[in-house]
Each structure stands twice: as C-alpha cells, then as structure tokens.
Amino acid sequence: MSYLVLILSIFSLSSFAATEGTIIVLEAPIFGEPDETSQIIQHYRKGDSIFLHPTEAHEDRYLDEDFRSLELLTADKNPDPLLNKKTTYTADEDSAFYKTMTKSGREAYVLKEHIRIVYKDIREFTQKPIGFDHTDYRIQEPLPKGYPILAEENFRGQINLAFGQPNYSGYPYKQRILDSAYGLSKEFSFVWSKSKSFNKERRFFFGAKGDIHFSKMDYLLTSQKATQDNLRLILGPYASYDTYRTDDHALNIFTSMQFTLIDKMDITIRDKSTSIKEQRQYSSNFGASASVGASFQFFEIYEDFDGVIGANFRVILPRTYSAEASAEESELWQSVNDSDEFEQEFTSELTYFAGIQTSY
Fold this sequence. Notes:
The protein has helices at 2-16, 65-68, and strands spanning 19-23, 27-31, 40-45, 49-52, 97-101, 107-111, 115-118, 155-164, 177-182, 185-195, 204-221, 224-245, 249-271, 277-283, 288-302, 305-316, 319-323, 341-344, 347-359. The chain is mainly beta. It has an eight-stranded antiparallel barrel with strand order 8-10-11-12-13-15-16-19. The two termini are 71 Å apart.
C-alpha cells in the first residue's frame, strides 16, 4: 500500500511540475484563497522556484475537438491534487492570482505580480518586470545618517534675504510729481513649518512665515524733493508642498496669508528754494496680504544646511496711512494736523530670495 501511495504521489507531482515559476519579490505570501485578505499559510523568498497549476501557463496545441473529448484525458483517470474536485480547475486570465500548492500538498494561491513563469518559449518576453516591490522591508542603502538611532525630520526652519522693487503710492504732495526713483526693497524672511502625520512622505508642511520689509522711494517735485521710507512687519500662516524631490534637490511651492503688525511710512520733504525740511511718520493700523511662491532647494550644501533660491509674489489689500503727529511747515503738507492721512490702493510686489534651510 505504501508503494502505491508513493507512486501516485510521484505521478501527481510530476504532472503538477509542468508549470514552474520564480519568485521575483523579497517575500511572497501564499494565500489559502484567491483573496489578499485571506489567511497567509506560507511564504516564499526571492529566487525560490514554485510550481503552479498546469493550466496557468497552458497553451492549447490540440484544437481538434475529437482529441479534446477523449475520455482518456479526464481527471478521474489522471489523479492530481489540484484536479481532485468535481469540476476541473481552469485558469482565469483576469484573476490576480495563480493557483499553486504548498509544500504539504494543500492547494493555495500566489499573486501574479510576485511570479515570473518559466514558459521556455516566446512568452518569456511578454512578462514585464515588477515596478516596485511592496514586500521589500529592507532599508535602502546608503543607510541614513545616525542609523540605527534615527530622528524624524518633521520640522523645517528657513531664513531668506529677498530683493525686489517697491510698489506703493506716493503721498498727495502739494506740488506736482515730475519724476520718481526707487532702490531695491529688502526683506528678511523667517519660516518655521512642520510636516503633518497624514502625509507619510513628508511633502506637506504647515507653519508660520514672518517678513521684515524695508523699501525707499524718492520723488522730484516742482521745487521740492521728497523721500518715503516704508517699514513693515508681516506675520501669518504658511503652507508648502514639495512637488519634486530627489536625494539632492527639491522643487517647493508655498503660499501664505499674512497680516501686517507694523506698517510705518516715514516721509521727508525738503524745499530747494527755501531749504525748509521736515519729516513726519505715518502708520497703518491694519493690513492684510496674500502670497504665493516657489523655491528650489539644494540639500546639504554645508553639513545639515540646505541652500534655497526662489521667488515670491504678494498682493496687498488697500490701507490707510495716518499721521502720528502734527507738522509745523504748512507749505509742505496737505494738513499739519495729526488727522492728516492718505490712501494706498491695491498693490502687488514681486521679490526674489536666497537663503538657508535646515530640517530637524
């Protein structure tokens, strides 16, 4: 009896071995049912050979109906652990699984994307390599700095210096403006942000952005010269996203809604004919602006510091500047009272910046 069982087992395995595959992922799970949520009953490692049901790679070379209907070829007369049911198993091309057998002889299923079938014919060239091995849990080399004690880089700090062109309306001078000139506006920017847990790749960062703005404009009047110096302290929420990132570079886009905490306009007027000169300070109590921009980052240009270059476009809502004190020279100002004020219209600014960034 034992010899009969051994002969049947050898016959069964030899018939089953007609189709062979090779595991192409690090660790392929073998499922009890053709369902990824079913029980995993075994694992195969990359490079292992695995036998599949013969019909998974079957190519019918005998299309003659008379041959296909011969009773000699029935499952009853050719016992096989994979063909021992009332209905013969037929491979489904649309299924995500191949039917296989465990080492103990139990029928099982393996994902098609984990297998490369050994066809030994032209079909070898029709199989596409796997794009990404989801079973590979190994850390990619080179190993991260400080491994195995790693610190999550969830925070970013950034300091930038920006230059641009001033863009604001002049004071309503008593004399006609003949010409105007401006120097480069300067901004010191500070950004602090933190990645959010919902984004495992740490591309989204949210935080705060602050700017200190300095700008100056000169005006040539009929017989006078005037200078306007603007100082602004701006602060507000900030959000950024790394749209493109490699091991060495990243392209980042960002936006910020900011509120003006301090907005001072120092105006100095000098009359060339009388040499009269006076300076007054005007301030705006409330201001709001919105900005969008992009930056290109160069990782670790010096130790843990990244280099950053980019551009920022800001739109500023209309605001009103009011005098903080009365004036003495009535021929220079529209009003010498401390109620003197002037409007600033809706404006926009474009600046270009460079700075450093660190992640921690």
